[in-house]
Amino acid sequence: MIIPFLIAAAVVVLDQISKYIVKTNMRIGESFNLVEHILDIRYIENKGASFGILKDHRWVFMTLSTVALALMAGAIVYLGQKKLKKHNRLIGIALALMFGGGVGNMIDRFFNESVLEPGTKAVVDFFEFAFVDFAVFNVADTFICIGSALFVISMLTGKYLVRETAADEEEEAIS
Question: Has 141 been annotated as catalytic?
């Protein structure tokens, strides 16, 4: 059960370090090309949820985010108490990535004061695709998306199975 929370902690640390680097080395709106024609770094503030949605409804996404994080933490603990088949540990990793990304952004929502609007809180976003018009995002958003994709893959492949008998364990040992 500890490994998913260590993964989540690593996501939070990577997210917060990347945001700190951007905040201390760039001005709001400043940008530069990181990978030619693919990825730019552009420092913006996001007062909404992921990809800027619900920016005028802070209480809605703060409530939903808190509930979602609590459910994910509960699911991680619950799954940690089960004897999952080896190939099914993917779901724990998926939940850990989503949980860590959610915590990373929640830290900003509670503690990161906006440069443009002092007294309000905002999430630091900085990754911008150069080849398509898409929202600016951050490390936490990236891990939330990766975790979500892994979660869906795990569910669609039917690999969410718990060992029920000693015969199941023997069968897995053989394969």
Answer: yes
